[in-house]
Specification:
Layout (H helix, E strand, L loop, with lengths): L1 H42 L2 H4 L4 H10 L10 E18 L13 E19 L11 E19 L1
Length: about 150
Amino acid sequence: MLCLETALVAPVVLLAFALVAQLAWVGFQTACFDHAVNTAAWSVDAEDARSPDADAAVRAAVIGSWVPLDDAAVEVSDARVSVQEASATAPTNGPDDRELYLVERTTRTVRTVRTTAQVAYTIQPIVPMPAFEPVRVERALDRTFVADAKFEVS
């Protein structure tokens, strides 16, 4: 009697375990991919804006993250890296600035790097079963950060 019950219940339990393992794997890989995409913009710098292949620069930044991703499953398209520099000069207004400190004006220069791209990742199933198909996750990358800031007095 015990063998019949085991024979009926064991496949259902194994299938349920495989389903839970697959869902956990997809959730883990999705979280890793989100982290890699969100931190990729910090790895792209002003030098990559001059690169002829922005897709390769962004892909290298996504893959270069510490998270465990399958390098061959990462796809990047429509990548753009742009650098913008803004500078503002203002005269000093303090009573002692010009006479005591010999400061006539201040200049602030800020360089920002904007990265945009469409990034996709194909998650392969951890349990090889016909019911589990690869899952494709896509994220849009659109980040701007300050790459360099200078403050000068003259």
